[in-house]
Amino acid sequence: MSVFRSGLFKGKVAIVTGGATGIGRAITEELITLGCRVVIASRNEEKLQKASLEMDPKQKFLVTKVCNIRKEEHVKTLISQTVSELGKIDYLVNNGGGQFPSPVSKMSLKGWNAVIETNLTGTFLMCREVYEQWMSEHGGVIVNIIADMFRGFPMMAHTGAARAAVDNLTKSLSVEWAENGVRVNAIAPGSSIYSPTAAKNYGDRNVFEGAIPGLPTQRLGTTRE
C-alpha cells in the first residue's frame, strides 16, 4: 500500500532502467500502484518477463524493453519506441547499473571500463536521448539513482567514481534544462539497503551486513523502504 493518493500518476508514463529487480523494481511497483504506465528496460529478457508477470499480470500498466544502456543505438530505440507506443515520457528513472567488489590494485581496465560505461555513460545516454526526443519540448522529470559515495567508496572505487560523476552531471543538467521545464535530481540510497539481487551479484551478503552496527535500527533496510 502506498502512502500517496491513489491514482496520483494516472495517465503518466515513466521509464525505469533496471526496473526488473532490486530498487528499480520497488520504484516500478510504486509507480504502477499510483496508476502510472511504466516501461522497464534491462539487458536480461528473462528477468523482464518474470518481473512483468509478477508485477502486472494483466499487462495493463507495464511494458518491457530489452536495452543495453551502454549502447547508443539501444538507448535511441528505447526512447523512440516508448514515445511511439505510449505517446509521451513524463518521468525517467535512471536506476540501471552494475558493479563488483574489488580493491583498486586488483581491478582490471576491462572491469573499470565496464562499470564506468554502465553507470556513467549509460546514464548520460538515457538523459540526452529522453531530452532530445521528448522532454526538450514537453518538459519532464529525470531522477538519477546514485550511491552514498560522498566519503569515498573503498572496494568499489569504480562505481564511486562513476556515481560521483553522475551527481555532477545531474547538477549540470538541472541548470541547462531548467528553462525547458525539465527537473533533474539524484537520489543516493545508502549501503544499508539490502537487495537480494545485488547480494547475489557480489557473492557476499557481508557487503551489506557490515553497515548494521552503525544503524539506529540495527537492521538493514529493504528496497521497498
Automatic annotation (TrEMBL):
Record keywords: Fatty acid biosynthesis, Fatty acid metabolism, Lipid biosynthesis, Lipid metabolism, NADP, Oxidoreductase, Peroxisome, Phosphoprotein
This entry's Gene Ontology molecular function terms read:
trans-2-enoyl-CoA reductase (NADPH) activity
Q: Which reaction does it catalyse?
A: a (2E)-enoyl-CoA + NADPH + H(+) = a 2,3-saturated acyl-CoA + NADP(+); (2E)-hexenoyl-CoA + NADPH + H(+) = hexanoyl-CoA + NADP(+); (2E)-tetradecenoyl-CoA + NADPH + H(+) = tetradecanoyl-CoA + NADP(+); (2E)-octenoyl-CoA + NADPH + H(+) = octanoyl-CoA + NADP(+)
Question: Which InterPro entries does its entry note?
Answer: NAD(P)-bd_dom_sf, Peroxisomal_t2-enoyl-CoA_red, SDR_fam
Q: What is its EC number?
A: 1.3.1.38
Alphabetical GO biological process terms: fatty acid biosynthetic process; phytol metabolic process
The pathway it acts in is: Lipid metabolism
Q: Name one Pfam family in it.
A: adh_short
Assigned GO CC terms: peroxisome
Localization annotation:
Peroxisome
EC class of the enzyme, as a word = oxidoreductase
Q: Which domain of life is it from?
A: Eukaryota
Self-association state and partner proteins as the record states: Interacts with PEX5, probably required to target it into peroxisomes.
What this protein is reported to do is described as: Participates in chain elongation of fatty acids. Catalyzes the reduction of trans-2-enoyl-CoAs of varying chain lengths from 6:1 to 16:1, having maximum activity with 10:1 CoA. Has no 2,4-dienoyl-CoA reductase activity.
Q: Which family does it belong to?
A: Belongs to the short-chain dehydrogenases/reductases (SDR) family.
How is this protein named in the record? Peroxisomal trans-2-enoyl-CoA reductase
